[in-house]
Amino acid sequence: MTEKNEEIVEDKDISEEVDEKLTEEIESEADNLQADSDLEQEKNNALVEQVNNLEEKLLRSQAEIQNIQQRNAREMQNIRKYDGQKLASAVLPAVDNLERALQVEANDEVAKQIKTGVEMTLKTLTQALIDNGITSTGEVGEAFDPTKHQAIQSVDSTDVDSDQIAQVLQKGYVLQDRVIRPAMVAVAK
């Protein structure tokens, strides 16, 4: 072979080697890019999952805050609704004593004046209770209700029907829909 042919063959061999090396480098670079791409995809997936978890925590926190606000509103409503219960419980024995005092006969002028004063005091206290949503329960002839009345005894009565209140031993009181004190009653048989 001539020198020129040998050079051409050598250049061809070198060219093939360079092509092979370039192909190997390109394939290696492509593998590296694919690995980098897979790594980036994994990072993206991890970040998306983290964002989803944080969004879920945020939604739970918002729901919990809303539940706390609703519970607080209900508690405040109950506090306002039943605000006078403690005071009413403290005042009720005084009302009972004034009612008992009015049952005593007043024979002389001084006793009648005292009785009038007691009546006015009782009327004022009763009106204050009514103004604050406190009503009495347990009237003769009223149907017996175990949620509002406490039966002390059962009696024979011709004045009222069976299972009705025949006698009130102590009035009961109700604040809104809550019984402060049940009425102590005698129920007709």
TrEMBL record:
The UniProt regions of compositional bias labelled Acidic residues, in chain numbering, are: 8-19
> Looking at the keywords, is Chaperone present?
yes
- Quote a single Gene Ontology cellular component term: cytoplasm
Q: Name one GO biological process term.
A: protein folding
Keyword Cytoplasm found: yes
The entry's keywords:
Chaperone, Cytoplasm, Stress response
Coiled-coil region(s): none
Q: What would you give as a GO molecular function for this chain, any one?
A: protein homodimerization activity
| Top-level lineage group | Bacteria
Cited CDD domains: GrpE
Q: Name one Pfam family in it.
A: GrpE
Q: Locate the region Disordered.
A: 1-43
The entry's localization annotation reads: Cytoplasm
**Subunit details:** Homodimer.
What family name appears in the similarity comment? Answer: Belongs to the GrpE family.
Described purpose of this protein according to its UniProt entry: Participates actively in the response to hyperosmotic and heat shock by preventing the aggregation of stress-denatured proteins, in association with DnaK and GrpE. It is the nucleotide exchange factor for DnaK and may function as a thermosensor. Unfolded proteins bind initially to DnaJ; upon interaction with the DnaJ-bound protein, DnaK hydrolyzes its bound ATP, resulting in the formation of a stable complex. GrpE releases ADP from DnaK; ATP binding to DnaK triggers the release of the substrate protein, thus completing the reaction cycle.
Xref: PANTHER family: GRPE PROTEIN, GRPE PROTEIN HOMOLOG, MITOCHONDRIAL
Name of the molecule in the record: Protein GrpE
